Amino acid sequence: MATISNTPQERLVLRAAARKSWALGLLLKTETNHPIDLTGSVITLVVSEQTPDLEPPVIPLINIEAVHVTPEKGHVRFELQASDTNLDTKEYDATITMRVGGYSIPIGNGTLEIMANTEAASTLFEYDEAEDAGTLEVWLKRRNVIKIVAPAVQSKGNPGDKGDKGDKGDKGDPGIGIAPGGATKAMLTKLSPSNYHTGWVARESLIPTPGTDFRVIDHGTYSEMIFTPVEDVGLSAEGTIEGMVPRAAGGELWGWDKLYTTDIVDTATHVMMTMEEREKLGSIDEDLMTSSDWAAEDGEPGFIHNKPVLGTASEHEHEDYRPADWFPALLELADVDHGTELPTSGPPNTFFILLPEPEEP
Length: 361
Description:
Elements: E1 11-17, E2 22-30, E3 42-48, E4 62-65, E5 67-70, E6 75-80, E7 91-100, E8 103-115, E9 134-141, E10 144-149, E11 187-190, E12 198-201, E13 212-218, E14 223-229, H1 230-233, E15 244-250, E16 253-258, H2 275-282, E17 336-339, E18 351-354
Parallel strand pairs: 1-8, 2-9, 17-18
Antiparallel strand pairs: 2-6, 3-4, 3-7, 5-6, 7-8, 9-10, 11-12, 13-14, 15-16
């Protein structure tokens, strides 16, 4: 039976000690193990009471937004404080969600189990920043979770006493064992339905049909093989028209669209212009593109429009004229003379001002 869903198939289990801080990191990757750029995304962790029929409105006990550590490398972190985990020791419903451009993606659904802890003073303190104390690795294919891994797995509870060992069963028929040889990274495969019929084959030989793209993602402790039809590997141009260009639609999605001048951002050296501006520039006569010339006649390069008609004062230098608010000193008048002794004679109609003798130093 074929099943499709927007909910992760794997159940997520988080365990935290009561009244203890927890810096929980998330690393988001594509199915080809490349980091996903989370710039502009909002990732939240919501924890609420478990109810048989969960219907909104849900009052969350924890509702925290992840801090972007290095979003361009897919790394964010939930910085849970000791006061956040100050809850009763039991299981709660937990959901991790990512929103990008209004589209919400469920990253993990499951439970948060609060473990017993006798220390309570930690709730009085908060930390500003810490390294990841635990990390979840999430692989997305387009906008669906295909795998979520917790590198450090904690078992629930302590193991009990071992029971009595049962009787040893009958020895089975001897087999031929694993086929000898095998190249590096080759895989042991059933070669036929016959018993013990196995052999070493190259991974590339497992491609089911021609026209399929085959990729292997090395996760360190295990390898993941992905078979993708070739038509789904790249961006198909089917249905496009001439002049369309690929345009990012958010996340890992691409589409085709027309490129318009309104989409182009002006820079310091390249700018767009309107048709009115283009026509105005095109109407300028290159022969008239010279500096202004006072002596130029109408129709000549550099001609100045609306030039005022000047009087004879324009023929003099500005030093020949005094400012309007200038008043001459008395001794600067042409018909005033001065000195410390009266002259025997002088020009007619001349005023003489007798100055006191200067004091000796």
